[in-house]
Write a structure and sequence with these properties.
By secondary structure, the protein is mainly α. It has 11 helices and 4 strands. It has 2 domains: 91 residues, Arc Repressor Mutant, subunit A (Orthogonal Bundle); 140 residues, Up-down Bundle (Four Helix Bundle (Hemerythrin (Met), subunit A)), CATH 1.20.120. The protein has a two-stranded parallel sheet.
């Protein structure tokens, strides 16, 4: 069900307060691209969940930008598949369905597989980022912070694709994972989604450290198939 970003709602007031604090991130230029990045971050973290109507008036006031700047930012987010524009209704954070998830995971397989195959020649700092993401997820799980486990999981997969050393792959992966977060937010339990895959993240990292790229590729293939199936099954059960 669509949610309007209405200043009268307490939860919306919290979100708008955070966005107002984001003004400092925009800098003096306050460009539409930077506004889009701020909104993308808030969507990815769940502050603006799927189905939320993005009010030009409320967001413009919170961020201190003009409607024209905000509309340009919305166009960027539409291109990134994070929001949709509905004629005579407004702009809404996208609600993904199973077909979206299947497509996202097909692209993930290509990008992450490319990074994995390049692991033997990857820069040491890229390998270190992979290990740091795994360790961060494990630490968050011990603390019971399953939202942070999800964030660490995205860092892990971003780092995996980044082993390719391609700026274009990095950019595309960032956009893809922001969209994937919308699917994560639709799941009934963050722990139920992420806990089964913590061990596999560690397994992939350890195999790459040992130089077994074939073994890591096999684990990644099963991993992505299982994750895609879990999310799609949940969406279908909810009638998505």
């Amino acid at each position: 069900m669509a949610q309007d970003l209405d200043l009268a709602q307490p939860s919306a007031e919290d979100t708008l307060g955070r966005l107002a604090a984001d003004r400092d991130l925009l800098g003096r230029a306050g460009t539409a691209q930077r506004v889009a990045e701020v909104l993308r971050d808030r969507i990815a973290e769940g502050a603006l969940p799927p189905g939320t109507r993005l009010s030009e008036h409320a967001l413009g006031a919170a961020l201190g930008v003009s409607r024209n700047t905000l509309r340009e930012a919305f166009r960027t987010l539409v291109d990134g598949r994070l929001v949709v524009h509905e004629m005579n209704r407004g702009v809404f954070v996208r609600t993904l369905g199973p077909d979206d998830v299947v497509d996202i995971y097909a692209v993930r397989s290509a990008l992450e597989g490319t990074g994995l195959r390049a692991a033997t020649g990857a820069a040491p700092e890229r390998i270190a980022a992979l290990e740091a993401a795994v360790a961060g997820g494990e630490a968050a799980a011990r603390a019971g912070d399953w939202a942070e486990v999800g964030t660490a999981d995205l860092r892990f997969h971003r780092a995996l694709a980044a082993l390719a050393g391609s700026a274009r792959i990095d950019e595309f992966m960032n956009r893809l994972l922001a969209e994937l977060r919308l699917a994560f937010l639709a799941m009934p339990s963050a722990r139920g989604l992420h806990e089964p895959f913590l061990r596999r993240n560690r397994e992939i990292a350890d195999l790459l450290t040992a130089g077994d790229t074939d073994g890591a590729a096999a684990v990644l293939e099963r991993y992505l198939d299982d994750a895609r199936r879990m999310i799609c099954d949940s969406m279908r059960a909810d009638g998505a």
